[in-house]
Each structure stands twice: as structure tokens, then as C-alpha cells.
């Protein structure tokens, strides 16, 4: 059975890490998060199933950061420092992908981005994911 979903080309800033990804629901799952790490990183992430990412080059140039419960795995390029993807704590069957790494996509393409309440993480609070707010971008031209 062929997969009709679009396969996106993606890369870090320096281009040493290149990958292809099919998204779980195209760009409908974009989000940011308020947790201690994401609020510093500042990237917009979009969901992909673990099986739907394929490294073309430079997987060995990625480095890994873990903290707190060390469940989530945050990957970034060891050369340019750009976050490429992470394996989620809230759903370990999924990666969050840095939308800015996807060819032809800018984080400023999205007028509204949901911000998840990562401070009270669903795995700590025992409740489902909560939305902390909506981030809006209004282009002036
Ligand atoms: Zn790089």
C-alpha cells in the first residue's frame, strides 16, 4: 500500500544532518511548549511517528540531550547546534520535528501556534495535555 502523505526534505542549518519525514497530520499538529527546556529552545515542533523519519546524511553528527526524567530525547546537530527533532515524553511513539528544518517552511508561516502547558506535564499531573495559550504572528506586510 502506498503512503499518500507528502515526504518532506529536512536539514539542520549547516546541512550535515539531512533527513526525510512524513508528518502524522501535516502541519495541523504544530505546537510550542512552556517546559523549562522548550521555552529556551523556542522552536515550533510538529508530530511524526517514529517510523516516518529517515536519515539521509549525518545521523552520527547528532548529539543527544536529556534531563529530569530523561524520558524525552532531544537531538541537535553537533556542528551548528540546531535542534532537529526529539522523541516525546508525552508520546514516546512520536517525534517532534523542528518545523524550521523542513524545506520550504518557516516558523513564521503560521499565524497561530498552540502552546502546550509543559510546566505541568501530562505525565506528572496525570491529566491530558493542556493548552497554555496561543502564540500569534501578524506579518506587517
Ligand atoms: Zn548542522
Automatic annotation (TrEMBL):
Family: Belongs to the Gfa family.
Stored InterPro entries: CENP-V-like, CENP-V/GFA, Mss4-like_sf
Domain CENP-V/GFA: 8-124
Keyword Metal-binding: yes
PANTHER family: CENP-V_GFA DOMAIN-CONTAINING PROTEIN, CENTROMERE PROTEIN V
Coiled-coil ranges from the UniProt annotation: none
Alphabetic keyword roster: Metal-binding, Zinc
Gene3D superfamilies on file: 2.170.150.70
The protein, known as: CENP-V/GFA domain-containing protein
One Pfam family in the UniProt entry: GFA
